[in-house]
Design a protein that fits this description.
By secondary structure, this protein is of the alpha+beta class. It contains 16 helices and six strands.
């Protein structure tokens, strides 16, 4: 195989930090964004109504916290397959069917609550079902954003999506508190059903959506490919780890705030709604502050400062002597929450290559909601042993320490790492004449590298190894030729010929392509590639038979 000339299939890789509201100039993004806010307002009303229904029944702090867990836990089960669904199916249709199913579940729960038949089991089960449907649609919704906004607005669009969730966090609980006080919990559930109707209307109206073309991949192979990419992307792993470090203690706030509002602060449902409204108001302020903060402090600095402010806010919430101090502190806490979540979300969306973006975002959702579930359970269990306020203070201290650890172990920089897809000539997107597209492929590439450059070459090949794994390799190794000490053979196995074609034509980023080109440049003779197809061993057995002489 001749030395490939790697050609970019898309141009430009500059991230323009435009105004934080610039994506709203795109009409369909604006419409979907507003509809999602209305839907999220309904979802937050649902959560407040469910939690307050348990509080009214004198349920334990653990049961109240389990509402958050039941909503978030399904992501642990369905996040990864949901990423595959969102990658290859029409994302608009995935959202449309998901909203329709959630509408039916909420209508049933509304009826049971109105007639006084809702038990704790029914409430938690319904919450789990709604969380399951939400888990299925979340990666598709996240990946829909890059489909409808220009790339240079992607980070701001992701931030606006996160801010929209927190606007709902501000408005939804306040409305829920008022509605519960005047009309009861069933009315809150009914309003949530109405919010699904609004989103359904927008999706039905939006008939011009054209899903991006995606290469056909079997479901299991696509799932493995997404998992393999995340496992071998150091930057993605590091970002997700940092998200988890923040989320597990931070979720003590959302899990135990109803208990603190009722027991420590003596507030009614309306007062609890106002506390959440203060947190959401801080998120709205974040819409104005974050674009400036990203320019001044960059990714690592924004997450560090936000973690410290959030941790301090949890401590002050518990020890504050007056609501006049509590409310502004919660505003700052809400701003800090969006500072961490929106910054990480926007960064990982912009970093993930287009071919695996939805599957990569499913891992983001897995961490986001999985840590929400775990953090809520941990907070609830600890609150059953110790005072809820003490647990929240401890969580605040952990959030602050997690932020300070960024001084020693900062987040990796993502600027200057080419994310556009490049094509590596040599393997063409044509079905094999023998119909053996599903056979495993063993690739052997022979390099001729002088001994004085062997160390440099092998160091570079350790990075190429990760490139091969990220794009589809299942096994990888390098060998030296016993008969020619200058020859090094790189071998790697891919699951099918179809997937190997994708490696060449749709999965290699500019960064990966540069690594491959540098490795090839160290060879004094143009590297040659051999492709071996696995033979189906029909009638053969893997165990050994004794020889019969």
């Amino acid at each position: 195989m001749a030395d490939p000339q790697i050609k970019p299939t898309s141009t430009g890789n500059r991230r323009e930090w435009a105004s934080g509201f610039s994506p709203l100039a795109v009409p369909i993004f604006r419409l979907v964004w507003l509809a999602s806010i209305i839907s999220n307002i309904g979802s937050w009303m649902q959560t407040v109504g469910a939690q307050w229904l348990l509080v009214q029944e004198d349920s334990s702090a653990l049961l109240v916290a389990l509402v958050q867990t039941a909503s978030a836990a399904p992501v642990l089960i369905f996040a990864i397959p949901s990423g595959v669904i969102g990658e290859f199916l029409n994302r608009r249709l995935v959202l449309l069917y998901s909203q329709a199913v959630q509408l039916l579940v909420v209508l049933a729960l509304t009826y049971l609550t109105w007639t006084g038949q809702t038990t704790t089991t029914i409430l938690l089960a319904s919450t789990f079902v709604l969380g399951t449907i939400s888990a299925i649609q979340l990666p598709a919704f996240q990946a829909l954003v890059p489909d409808i906004v220009p790339r240079n607005l992607l980070v701001d669009a992701a931030s606006l999506s996160s801010i929209g969730v927190n606007i709902a966090r501000a408005v939804g609980p306040a409305i829920a508190g008022l509605v519960v006080a005047q009309f009861g919990v069933a009315a809150v559930f009914l309003l949530n059903a109405a919010s699904f109707v609004v989103f359904l209307g927008v999706l039905l109206f939006w008939k011009t959506y054209k899903p991006p073309l995606a290469r056909h991949e079997p479901f299991v192979d696509a799932t493995r490919a997404g998992t393999r990419y995340v496992l071998h992307s150091r930057i993605v792993r590091h970002i997700l780890m940092r998200l988890a470090i923040f989320l597990i203690p931070a979720n003590a706030l959302w899990a135990l705030l109803p208990t603190i509002a009722n027991d420590s602060l003596g507030l009614t449902a309306s007062g609890y709604g106002l506390l959440l409204a203060a947190l959401g108001a801080g998120s709205i302020i974040g819409a104005f502050v974050l674009p400036w903060a990203r320019r001044v402090a960059a990714f690592n600095g924004v997450v560090l400062a936000s973690s410290l402010v959030f941790g301090g806010g949890l401590v002050v919430l518990v020890i504050s002597p007056t609501l006049w101090l509590t409310f502004p502190v919660l505003v700052a806490t809400g701003l800090a929450w969006i500072g961490v979540i929106a910054t990480i979300n926007g960064t990982i969306q912009a970093f993930l290559p287009v071919w695996v973006r939805t599957r990569g975002l499913s891992f983001y959702q897995l961490v986001l909601y999985g840590c929400t579930a775990a953090g809520s359970v941990i907070a609830g269990v600890l609150a059953a042993v110790w005072d809820s306020g003490l647990v929240v203070v401890g969580a605040g201290i952990l959030c602050g320490l997690g932020g300070l650890s960024l001084l020693l172990w900062p987040l990796p920089k993502t600027t200057g790492i080419g994310r556009d897809i490049v094509e590596i000539p040599g393997v063409h997107d044509e079905p094999r004449a023998d119909g053996n597209d599903d056979a495993a492929v063993l690739v052997l590439i022979r390099y001729t590298v002088p001994q004085d450059r062997r160390t440099e070459f092998l160091t570079l090949m350790s990075q190429v190894q990760q490139t091969r794994f990220r794009t589809g390799a299942r096994e990888w190794q390098v060998y030296s030729d016993a008969d020619d000490p200058d020859v090094v053979v790189e071998t790697y196995q891919v699951g099918s010929w179809r997937e190997h074609v994708s490696q060449h034509e749709g999965r290699t980023t500019e960064f990966d392509g540069e690594l491959i080109s540098r490795a090839r440049a160290l060879s004094t003779v143009a590297p040659t590639a051999t492709h071996l197809l696995a033979i189906q061993r029909t009638g053969l057995h893997s165990h050994r038979h004794p020889d019969k002489a």
